Amino acid sequence: MKQRSSESRGRIMTTTPHRVVIVGAGFGGLEATYRLAGAPVDITLIDRRNHHLFQPLLYQVATASLATSEIAWPVRHLMRDRREVTTLFATVSGVDATRRCVLIDDGSEVPYDTLVLATGARHAYFGHDEWEQFAPGLKTLEDGTTLRRHILVAFERAERETDPARRAARLTFVIVGAGPTGVELAGTIAEMAHHTLPGDFRNIDTTKARVVLIEAGPRVLAGFADDLSAYAQASLEKIGVEVVLGQPVTEINREGVVFGGKLLEAKTRIWAAGVRASPAAEWLGAPADRAGRVQVEDDLTIPGHPEIFAIGDTVSINAWEGKPVPGIAPAAKQQGKHVAETIKARLRGAATGPFRYKHAGSLAQIGKRLAVIDFGRIKLRGTIAWWIWGIAHIYFLIGLRHRLSVALSWLWIYARDQRAARLITQGSSKVVG
Amino acid sequence: MKQRSSESRGRIMTTTPHRVVIVGAGFGGLEATYRLAGAPVDITLIDRRNHHLFQPLLYQVATASLATSEIAWPVRHLMRDRREVTTLFATVSGVDATRRCVLIDDGSEVPYDTLVLATGARHAYFGHDEWEQFAPGLKTLEDGTTLRRHILVAFERAERETDPARRAARLTFVIVGAGPTGVELAGTIAEMAHHTLPGDFRNIDTTKARVVLIEAGPRVLAGFADDLSAYAQASLEKIGVEVVLGQPVTEINREGVVFGGKLLEAKTRIWAAGVRASPAAEWLGAPADRAGRVQVEDDLTIPGHPEIFAIGDTVSINAWEGKPVPGIAPAAKQQGKHVAETIKARLRGAATGPFRYKHAGSLAQIGKRLAVIDFGRIKLRGTIAWWIWGIAHIYFLIGLRHRLSVALSWLWIYARDQRAARLITQGSSKVVG
């Protein structure tokens, strides 16, 4: 992509600064906004949520380990000191690329000179959307509290159930998909059942709960090195997770999950198997892959629209030494940074280059004092990996207050197996009976 | 009420312990359970929520100051080491006093020898139930997060509103009822508008938000001494709250609140004016006052049913030197303690006596460094009262973890006016547009 110095030089000299609209305040959108600090631009940051979510720890909300406010920040507050940034809490319904404006669902429009689409992804059910009602996924804070309610209510209902088969179904937790989220959910639910809950119930033995992790592929944590996958699987099995590999799920219904031609009765089913990009590609009529991800140019612009960038989970790009960039937070942040630098270079009339992804490493927590880290040449496992995992995640949180709060919550889980956020909310009275 | 030693003596000697069923895990029910520790009883503690809620700080959830998990505890976990206590997460639909069993809404029954009803109260609209949809009240955690969403969304919509009158209506917050909850809500919303939010918005000046506290009676904090009421009113006005006294609200609708024959346009209306007891009296066909509160005997038993106690906000009793016992946490706890001691005395065959309420004092926070405390002879106001208020509330939280967490949250609000729980959740994408 050539630099567009003719346009940018013009903009710099006018009194109206270059208008950048960023849709999505996830890792990519936020990083782009941060990196544009000091540039001669006016920024509008639009999100349909009022908060930035630290998605890598969302499974800890679902498993009652962390409170919602410990992994979320009001976007508006993060941009408090950036007077050139306007935060808009609104739902985008489309983009008019000809007139260069973003369409809001209330009928209003936000004009742009440069547009950055960082709209993320939702979980996808591979053409089986009807499975969603039986196996919720995990993307938003509400997904987290909904899943938390499912898990906690399952134990409560098992406590009151007298029929052994039905009780067993209540105490069976199936997680579909053994990527990092699936592994972390399975490991944490097993920890809860074995260490947090046992003393609290009178009729059930929560350590008898079955946690089943089902993966269509041949190993858990496919993005990690083979030996770390094997270690993760062994660790999961040691803490009580049943790992089922090479078994695609063929049916999910209110009774349970079908794989290998058999129904496993389970009242709690969690989907961690696939995502689908947000409709950014549809808004633009841009080429997309099967998962709906925009196929962007090598500088992250939309083909034919050098003034529109797309980043993060909503795009597909082979910028990792020719391989696809993984859908993880550091990748979105690197892309956000690249976009900001490209915009700044254009405004200066300087040359811009393609995006190149640098993989810092892959991390996954399996359970207490159990994690795997794949830095490429260096591979870590067990307690040392777990400490690095914890310290890294606290480091990446925004602000001292959240860091102290999460550290406090983890200290209590570590020392006393006590999870403070064991709250059944959102119509709790309705789910019983 | 006479002691019932004939029954109790028999129970002590049998191998089946005396069965106590406690409905409601609020302050009263929890205290009764705690105080029965060591007694020869089997306890079933039933609540339709899985958590005990520290209601005195619920307004801080509504105003984004505290996270839900900071003021709630899983009941089951609190009773972890009490092997004789069974916690039941269930909704009670009635009581069969003849067959001595509690009816659960799933059709099951829980038999009792002694029953303790500690089922609390909901807000009441004095015959105007249709007002509830326009002016929500504050009793449950969900009420807290719902109100938080209302308040935060009001500012968000005002930021996007271009019509001055509609913007003013978005930025007008009406609180009906100037008891402690109303005063604390009004004061905290004013603090938010003046100190937490100003830098975060670009189109609106949040310090121009109107916070209007309407009270039908002649003064705020009617339960406090006259001079403390006057001080509280002056303090509220100093931090930007408009106080309207002697004005009953005659209408609440989607436009605003009508009082004194005039409509005040306001998109956020909060009900803090009245409560109605839970249907315990109806379950028993017992005599009740206008607010639905059971009129209990002087030992807190139901007339004609010495084996059934009722305590807390669900009862009406003139046990405060002949005056009605106030509907506050310490009163419920004293009643719970009295019931536990009466049950234990009966089981020992000892004499029991009437309940007498001892008033320790009344506390209300008005704003930062502003509170009033009425200890009877000693009255405190301002900064010293605020510190005592804060320390007392942290002291009454359960467990070191919650105390540290709340202290951390308050430290950030105190030092930086930063409220961590500014999250719009529960269908957030739907409320915009």
Automatic annotation (TrEMBL), chains A, B:
Superkingdom per UniProt: Bacteria
GO terms (molecular function) for this protein are: NADH dehydrogenase (quinone) (non-electrogenic) activity
What EC number(s) does this enzyme carry?
1.6.5.9
Domain External alternative NADH-ubiquinone oxidoreductase-like C-terminal span(s) in chain numbering? 359-411
Annotated TM spans: 384-402
| Span of domain FAD/NAD(P)-binding | 19-336
Keywords in alphabetical order, please: FAD, Flavoprotein, Membrane, NAD, Oxidoreductase, Transit peptide, Transmembrane, Transmembrane helix
Q: Which reaction does it catalyse?
A: a quinone + NADH + H(+) = a quinol + NAD(+)
Q: Which SUPFAM superfamilies match?
A: FAD/NAD(P)-binding domain
- Top enzyme category: oxidoreductase
Q: Name one Pfam family in it.
A: Pyr_redox_2
PANTHER family for this protein: EXTERNAL NADH-UBIQUINONE OXIDOREDUCTASE 1, MITOCHONDRIAL-RELATED, NADH DEHYDROGENASE
Family according to the record: Belongs to the NADH dehydrogenase family.
- Name the record gives this protein: NADH:ubiquinone reductase (non-electrogenic)
What is the organism of origin for this protein? Bradyrhizobium niftali
